[in-house]
Write a structure and sequence with these properties.
Number of strands: 4
Strand order of the largest sheet: 2-3-1-4
Largest sheet: 4 strands, antiparallel
Radius of gyration: 13 Å
Oligomer: single chain
Shape: globular
Distance between the termini: 18 Å
Order of helices and strands: EHEEHHE
């Protein structure tokens, strides 16, 4: 199944993102076979990062939740919220 992880950063936590970015990238690289899309959300002007969107292939919701919980950003307390939603691609 495909799941979208929509992760919103806590305000004023840019330093947490910066400090944990190398570990976060390693975590993603170690799971490349599961990743469909991964990247940061930004402000409209592109100047600041506001969160992350990750789309993964997972066996079920529990596996998607475990993946989200294992992210170094989540472990460091970066996110104000994480929403996990099942997703069905239709186009293209």
């Amino acid at each position: 199944m495909t799941f979208v992880l929509y992760c919103v950063d806590k305000a004023g936590h840019g330093h947490v993102r910066a400090e944990n970015r190398p570990a976060h990238l390693e975590y993603l690289k170690s799971n490349l076979e599961r990743l469909l899309i991964a990247g940061p959300m930004t402000s409209d002007d592109g100047e600041s990062v506001t969160g992350s969107v990750i789309i993964i292939d997972a066996d079920d919701r529990a596996a998607a939740e475990a993946f989200a919980a294992g992210d170094p950003y989540a472990k460091a307390g970066l996110f104000e919220s994480v929403t996990i939603t099942a997703y069905k691609k239709v186009l293209p």
